[in-house]
Design goal:
One of its GO terms (biological process) is L-amino acid transport. This protein has a single domain, classed as P-loop containing nucleotide triphosphate hydrolases (Rossmann fold, 3-Layer(aba) Sandwich), CATH 3.40.50. Helices cover 36% and strands 25% of the residues. It contains eleven helices and ten strands. The strands form two sheets. The chain has a six-stranded mixed sheet, with helices on both faces. The protein has a four-stranded antiparallel sheet with strand order 2-1-4-5, covered by helices on one side. Strand 7, helix 8 and strand 8 form a beta-alpha-beta unit. Bound molecules: adenosine-5'-triphosphate (ATP). The site of adenosine-5'-triphosphate (ATP) has 12 residues, from strand 2 and helix 1.
Amino acid sequence: MTPDEALLEVRDLRSGYGASVVLDGLSFSVGVEAVAIVGRNGMGKTTLCDTLVGFVAPSGGEVRLSGRRLDGLAPETIAIAGIGYVPQGRRLFPSLTVDEHLVMLARRARGRRWTPDAVYDLFPRLAERRRHGGADLSGGEQQMLAVGRALLLNAPLIVMDEPSEGLAPTIVDVLVDAVHQLVAEGVAVLVVEQNLRAAVRMAGRQLVMVSGRIEAEFTGAELLDRPDLQHRYLGVGATIGEHA
Ligand SMILES: Nc1ncnc2c1ncn2[C@@H]1O[C@H](COP(=O)(O)OP(=O)(O)OP(=O)(O)O)[C@@H](O)[C@H]1O
């Protein structure tokens, strides 16, 4: 891959639920970088994530990872092909410990960059809680575990849906640092965020989603400096995220 070539290429993607169209011809690309998708509630951000990873079947368009078509493939195939997913709400197993979540995926990870021990190095707090069950973990610990689980795929791209949702500022700091470390190591991150300040700290490019399309792209500084753009694209109350 040359520096100019996109890792993820999404072209004219369409999807929805039955007759309800949510993604309406959406296009963008991501290189080895962190890119944020921002937008008001209900614009289709979660549907975009779910469509990229195969949980929602697209009705048209293309998703390519390093040139390989992935649209229409099963979620397991897409995961193995190279898209790790950190879903909204984390979707962990309450009865499994932290260690059990990670060990489940460790065989495939053996000898590669991301192993359970590497995840514990990234998130020392998780190492302290390794014998605790998913249901005993704080929201931040659950989010770290969800990120760690996605990393064990050793995928070139990680998609994160609202990772900062409901988390204390110190935990958001940990996630921001983790995103920077991943990008520095050559992993691309596509992150959906309601919290503009968290989005801007994680990603240089801010893609604004409106009614199932990417309507505009800004740098973080452009969006933070322009309350009019925040109001227009993000709505009242979903703007700055003062606490992150
Ligand atoms: N499983 C589903 N079945 C039918 N419609 C759905 C389903 N999930 C989402 N939708 C609809 O799709 C549209 C886009 O929702 P989506 O959750 O993708 O938006 P979003 O931008 O992620 O919003 P939010 O930030 O509130 O999660 C909404 O109109 C929503 O009601």
